[in-house]
Design a protein that fits this description.
There is one protein chain. The chain is built from four helices and no strands. Helix 1 runs antiparallel to helix 3.
Length: about 120
């Protein structure tokens, strides 16, 4: 069962929507940074952390943002690869890369860059 042209067009739209959402998330990280507010730019350093515990909290916050940014970047790469698959081999788009079986449209609608099914055939015993 391959996807219809209407379904493929819908999934292409979903991929572009997800791409825009993720780029907005990445841009939000760039918009907020230490020392970016007017108080710091004016030279008032009273808001900057001076206690070692505050500095540690800032480092943890930066590490969390870096982790999120890495995940978002990886998701963007998956979306770009899915757009490429959709445009180059639309007849194969939505097929599980491991089993060759169709991925349900409902799953693709939620995760338009999905490359595998969630449900797997039970392993032979």
């Amino acid at each position: 069962m391959s996807l219809s042209k209407t379904q493929l067009k819908h999934l292409e739209t979903r991929l572009h929507q997800e791409r825009v959402r993720l780029i907005d998330q990445l841009n939000a990280f760039e918009d907020v940074g230490p020392g970016e507010d007017a108080q710091v730019r004016s030279g008032d350093l009273s808001k900057l952390p001076t206690h070692p515990a505050d500095l540690g909290t800032d480092v943890i916050g930066e590490e969390i943002e870096l982790s999120i940014g890495t995940r978002v970047s990886a998701e963007l790469a998956e979306i770009d690869a899915a757009v490429d698959r959709l445009l180059t081999t639309p007849e194969r788009f939505g097929m599980d890369e491991q089993t060759g079986l169709p991925i349900p449209f409902e799953r693709l609608d939620l995760i338009p860059y999905a490359r595998t099914n969630v449900a797997r055939e039970p392993a032979p015993q």
